[in-house]
Amino acid sequence: MNCRPACAACCIAPSISSAIPGMPHGKPAGARCVQLDADDRCLLFGRPQRPAVCASLAPSAEMCGSSREQAMAWITQLERATR
Ligand code: SF4
Ligand code: SF4
């Protein structure tokens, strides 16, 4: 499946342990990544500074669901289960 425009659930809901430009210690779960622009697009897309974990994450029906709310809920649940 394709990534849904203006979603960004996977840039907000999960924790990211690797450094992100502007977030040197990574990102806590539920925090909006500082690299999201006003349209919820990654400012680092296609650039070497983008964390490998971000580049390796592919959209899936299971994770993304049919709305941002569903994706937020699924990722948050996974985050809690793996904390
Ligand atoms: S949760 Fe899925 S649809 Fe939403 S931004 Fe991430 S990959 Fe795209
Ligand atoms: S670096 Fe880009 S892809 Fe990774 S969490 Fe931040 S906005 Fe999302």
Provide a compact summary of the structure.
With about 80 residues, the chain is mostly helical. The protein is about 30% helix and about 0% strand.
Question: What descriptive keywords fit this protein?
Answer:
83 residues, mainly alpha, 3 helices, globular, binds iron/sulfur cluster
Q: What order do the helices and strands come in, and which of them pair?
A:
Blueprint lengths: L51 H5 L4 H4 L3 H14 L2
The chain binds iron/sulfur cluster (SF4) (2 copies).
One iron/sulfur cluster (SF4) binds next to loops.
What does this structure look like?
By secondary structure, this protein is an all-alpha fold. It has helices at residues 52-56, 61-64, 68-81. The site of one iron/sulfur cluster (SF4) has 10 residues, from helix 2.
Segments where pLDDT lies below 50 for 5+ residues?
none
Oligomer: single chain
Please summarize the sheet with the most strands.
Answer: none
* End-to-end gap: 27 Å
Bound molecules: iron/sulfur cluster
Give the structural class.
mainly alpha
Average residue pLDDT:
97
